[in-house]
Design brief:
The chain is of the alpha+beta class and 327 residues long. 42% of the residues lie in helices and 19% in strands. The protein contains 14 helices and eight strands. The strands form two sheets. Strands 6-3-5-4-7 form a five-stranded antiparallel sheet, with helices on both faces. Strands 2-1-8 form a three-stranded antiparallel sheet. The longest helix is centred in the middle third of the chain and has 19 residues. The protein binds zinc ion. Zinc ion (ZN) binds next to helix 5.
C-alpha cells in the first residue's frame, strides 16, 4: 500500500481551496469552535472532500440544527499532537460524531465491530435480511413500519424459541425512484426455519415476503458490514443523490440505527472509542504529553524539520487507522 502521509499533508497538493464549508448561520458564541485549518482538514477529511460538501448541503436542506452543522463543518479542529511515554503519537481534536461524517462514522463502526465480535466469541450466528415491499409512502413512515414490524416479529413464538440474541441495523437503499428500507439482523441461537419465518413476516407486514437467512461464512466481513450500517444507515446509491440524501437525513434524524436484544443488548452503547488513559504513575506525569498543534507540525515539516516529518509519518490518517469499514 502506498503510504500517503508525508506528501498528502502538504497543503499545496490538495485542490481543496474551498475546503471550509460555508455555514448558513454563525455559531452560537458559547459553542463556537476554532475554525478548522487547511492542515487539519487535509489530515481528517482528504479523500472525501467533495462528498463532504454534498453531505453538508443535504444536512442544511434537511433542517439540521445550527450547532450540529457547526460541529460537522469544523470536525477535526483544534488538533493537538501528543506523544506517549512509550513514544507513540496521536492526535486529539474536536470531533463532530455525526453519523454523516465519514471519519467519525468510521471510528464508531470500528469500535462497534469490536464490541460485536467480543460478544460473538464462540457462537454461531446467522444473518437475516428483512425487507418491505417498495411503496411510495414517505420514507419516515416506511422506516416506522419496518421497526414496528420487526418488534412484532420478535414477539412471535418462532422468534422467542429460536433466537437468543439479535442486533439489527437499518439500511436504506434506493432504486428506480423508490426507497427500499431493510433491516440486517445478526442472530444467535438455534436453527430458524426460513419458510416459517418468511410466513410470519408476511403475516405481520401484510405484503412483504422476502427474508433471507443464512449461516455466516465470513464473520469478519459480516460484522464489519453490520457495524458500518449501524453508523450510517445508507448506501452509496443514496449518498450520490442530493434529494434522496436530504430525505434520508431527515427520516433518520433522532433515530437509533441499531436495535439490540438478548445477548447483544446494549452493545451499541459500547461503541464510543475508548480514549481512556492508563493510570497515572507515581511521578504524576501524564501518559500523553502535548507536542504541538497539528498545523504547526505540518508547517515545520514543510520547512524541512526532520523531527516534524517523522512525527507526521507516525500519525495515521483517521479512517486508515479504523480499517476503512465502508463498503
Ligand atoms: Zn466528524
Amino acid at each position: 500500500m502506498n503510504p500517503p502521509y508525508a506528501t498528502s499533508l502538504e497543503g499545496h497538493e490538495t485542490s481543496e481551496q474551498d475546503y471550509r464549508l460555508k455555514e448558513p448561520y454563525p455559531p452560537r458564541a458559547e459553542f463556537a469552535l476554532p475554525p478548522i485549518t487547511l492542515e487539519e482538514h487535509v489530515f481528517r477529511h482528504s479523500g472525501w472532500s467533495a462528498h463532504r460538501r454534498r453531505v453538508f448541503a443535504a444536512m442544511i436542506a434537511a433542517g439540521t440544527g445550527r450547532s450540529a452543522l457547526h460541529r460537522f463543518a469544523n470536525c477535526g479542529c483544534g488538533a493537538i499532537v501528543e506523544r506517549s511515554r512509550d513514544g507513540d503519537y496521536r492526535v486529539k481534536a474536536n470531533y463532530c460524531r455525526s453519523r454523516w461524517c465519514k471519519p467519525c462514522a468510521a471510528a464508531r463502526a470500528a469500535a462497534l465491530a469490536d464490541a460485536i465480535r467480543f460478544r460473538l466469541l464462540g457462537k454461531t450466528f446467522r444473518f437475516l435480511t428483512l425487507t418491505l415491499r417498495s411503496s411510495a409512502t414517505p420514507l419516515s413512515d416506511q422506516v416506522d413500519r419496518l421497526i414496528r414490524s420487526f418488534r412484532e416479529l420478535r414477539r412471535q413464538v418462532i422468534w422467542r424459541e429460536t433466537v437468543d440474541g439479535s442486533i439489527a441495523v437499518i439500511e436504506l437503499t434506493r432504486s428506480n425512484g423508490c426507497w427500499h428500507p431493510h433491516l440486517h439482523v445478526l442472530i444467535t441461537g438455534h436453527y430458524v426455519d426460513q419458510k416459517q419465518l418468511a410466513e410470519r413476516w408476511h403475516a405481520i407486514t401484510g405484503d412483504s415476503y422476502i427474508v433471507w437467512i443464512k449461516k455466516v461464512g465470513n464473520a469478519q466481513e459480516t460484522v464489519n458490514y453490520v457495524a458500518a450500517y449501524a453508523s450510517k444507515g445508507i448506501d452509496a446509491s443514496v449518498e450520490a443523490d442530493h434529494d434522496a440524501l436530504t430525505e434520508a437525513i431527515a427520516a433518520l434524524k433522532g433515530r437509533r440505527l441499531v436495535i439490540t436484544t438478548g445477548a447483544f443488548y446494549g452493545v451499541e452503547k459500547e461503541e464510543e472509542p475508548n480514549d481512556q488513559e492508563p493510570e497515572p504513575d507515581h511521578d504524576y506525569e501524564p501518559y500523553w504529553q502535548p507536542v504541538g498543534t497539528l498545523t504547526a507540525i505540518v508547517h515545520r515539516a514543510k520547512h524541512g524539520s526532520v523531527e516534524a516529518r517523522e512525527i507526521l509519518a507516525k500519525l495515521r490518517f483517521p479512517w486508515k487507522a479504523y480499517g476503512e469499514p465502508f463498503i
